[in-house]
Amino acid sequence: MASGLNDLGRFAEPAVLILVALANGPKHGYAIMTDVEAMTGSPIGPGTLYAALGRLERRGLIAPLPADDRRRPYELTGAGATTLEEQLRELERFARTGLTRLASSG
Amino acid sequence: MRLLVRLYPAAWRARYEDEFLAVLEERPLSPFDAVDILLGALDARLRPRSLAIDLAPRRNPPMNPRIAGYAAVAGGGLTLLMMLLGFVLPQPTNGVAVFLYPFAAVALLIAVVGLGAVQGRRNPVLGWAAVVVPAAGLLVSLVGVLGGVIGAGDEPMVAGLNSWALWSLGLSGFAIGSILFAVATIGVGVLSRGGALTLLIGSLIVGGIFLPTVIGLINPDGVPVMQMAIVAGVVLFCAGWMWLGYAATVQRPIASSAAA
User: Fold this and answer.
1) Given CB atoms, is B31 within the 8 Å cutoff of chain A?
2) Which of A62, A91, A60 is nearest to A74 (CA)?
3) With an 8 Å Cβ cutoff, is A37 touching chain B?
């Protein structure tokens, strides 16, 4: 995990998924849930979603926008985009290492 | 569903409850969701510093909207009493009805300014137009009534208008302003939309039927339907202001997204 998300414990993975969901534009809570489910095939619970949103918001990685009726969209901040990119690069290196090892053992 | 959400700390609910409930209402609540919410509430209580908001004790609504809310309830109630007395008493422009009007007008003026300030933060143009027009109407009508009380009678007071004409003009402005206020409230959504819809219907009837009757353009005598519509319009008009006022007194503080 990237350093910015290391201390999130069990919310680190949902946090990354939320950042990815917001990478192509602001989304409100339910849109984030459906996007994450579409990307991963697994649902993210509403309690987990808002616990992770709160942590990301406190770290300045996402920012709330004015509510549309009762639904409040969130957007990725500059710091959030940087953190997400670092996170994905680490995952990319991790995946490449794993694939290289698999290929050499075969 | 709401019971589960109430497990969260009050400050968390002040910030997230509306949007959280909106998410929950999008699909049926599964057992997985219920457990997840329980864990989320536990997390919010055990690790309050991990959240984006400070979990300070829940505060009462800001003072201005509360005062404006009480003023709206009082103003709407007094106006309703005044109008009902006006229907009952043989000379509604004298006595109790006239005595009540300044109190009703001042209360509604406070309500319009205070409640409008809340909406003006969200939609400045419509929000403030919805304050200026009814407030100006109330002030003009108040001048007219006070002119009548001090005995100005039919003598011109302002711009060649006598006290009766000023009262009618001001009340017309207030009715039109109330329509604007109701439309702004429905659009902005900060205050009660049910109250705003009630006010809108009442204002349309008051502006469209009652005031033309007062100034002699329409004669409802012998037309029971029109008389009933006038009574219904006045009641809805006053009930709308009272509803909006009550909603403002019990409203939660508006969550500040800027806290993030």
Assistant:
1) no
2) A62
3) no
pTM of the predicted protein model: 0.50
| CATH code of the domain covering residue A32 | 1.10.10.10
Q: How far apart are CA A36 and CA A55, in angstroms?
A: 18
Instruction: Supply B171's token pair.
Output: 């009340």
Give a yes or no: residue B257 inside a domain. no
Domain encompassing residue B102: 63-250
Q: Does ipTM top 0.95?
A: no
Task: Report the amino acid identity of residue B177.
Answer: G
- pLDDT above 50 (res B254): no
A79 touches chain B (CB under 8 A): no
More confident residue, A43 or B165: A43
| Residue in A33, A47, A58 nearest the CB of B50 | A58
User: Chain centroid to CA A66: how far?
Assistant: 21
Question: Count of alpha carbons within 13 Å of B45, Cβ hemisphere only?
Answer: 12
Tally of domains in chain A: 1
